[in-house]
Specification:
three-stranded antiparallel sheet, about 280 residues, single chain, 6 helices, mainly alpha
């Protein structure tokens, strides 16, 4: 059974982008100097390879999914771990060097993942096949998490500084938005903590970082159940203020429902978070 013309073209674009990402990441891995950056590139490249093969496999036979569990270290980041404000930011200008420095590599990674997330979501909106839709959506969420991990690394290194405004200005600006009034909530029977906006067809709630993903079973074109009902992904990771960053994940794979355990240690040297 063929795919629709629109979704076939979207998948063609996504696979072309992933090949470009893998080629670039391979180059960056060879030129990166920082051990933490190099290790992160290796993990992200592994995930891009699996993501690419997952899409290729399904578009060839409509049945096979390759395991693709998340391997990013963003599960338990707390707001006070982010460094805000500008501190003598470096001047930037285009370079003509034949090799990249670590800042240029990290910036390229970040841009690749942001584009991958944006393009993946856009493609997902055009997909008719429910299993292919879920595969692309999972890939887009992975790109979101990978982009955030790169940002955390750059922020820690002082390479991605966040400009701020005066606290009272930000609060005044954002506090103009007030909660929905109770009469409107009562009209639509909205209660505290009620889950809203759930896709009734997919029951998919792909969430970033260390939250949960719940999905109904998907059925392949051959009639086989591809994704067991009631799956849960729970990511637990710890970020130390110095020394090692340790991630512990317990993943029920969104494709097979297998329980996997994974522990990743990332060296951060002696770099400290400044709060």
């Amino acid at each position: 059974m063929p795919f629709g013309a629109h979704e076939a073209m979207e998948v063609h674009e996504i696979l072309t982008e992933k090949i470009n990402m893998m080629n670039h990441f391979n180059l960056y891995a060879q030129q990166a100097k920082n051990p933490q950056l190099k290790e992160m590139i290796h993990r992200h490249l592994q995930e891009e390879i699996k993501s690419y093969d997952t899409i290729v496999s399904y578009t060839h036979d409509y049945q096979t999914f390759a395991p693709m569990s998340s391997n990013t270290n963003v599960g338990s980041v707390k707001p006070d771990q982010i460094q805000y404000g500008l501190d003598n930011p470096s001047m930037l200008t285009p370079e003509s060097n034949t090799t990249f420095n670590d800042y240029e590599i990290a910036s390229a990674l970040l841009i690749c993942h942001k584009n991958g997330a944006s393009n993946g979501v856009k493609a997902t909106l055009e997909i008719a096949d429910p299993n292919l839709r879920q595969v692309l959506l999972n890939g887009a969420v992975n790109c979101v998490n990978q982009a955030y991990e790169v940002f955390l690394f750059m922020n820690q290194q002082g390479q991605y500084q966040i400009p701020t405004m005066r606290d009272h200005t930000a609060k005044t600006y954002l506090h103009t938005f007030q909660p929905v009034n109770e009469s409107l909530k009562a009209q639509y029977m909205v209660t505290q903590g009620q889950i809203q906006g759930v896709d009734q067809g997919m029951m998919a709630s792909n969430v970033i970082g260390g939250t949960q993903v719940n999905q109904q079973a998907h059925v392949s074109r051959s009639g086989q159940s591809m994704m067991p009902t009631g799956q849960t992904i729970q990511t637990l990771s710890g970020m130390a203020a110095s020394g090692n960053m340790q991630q512990q994940q317990h993943v029920q794979n969104p494709m097979y429902g297998q329980m996997m355990g994974n522990q990743v240690h990332m060296q951060q040297g002696t770099q400290h978070y400044n709060h």
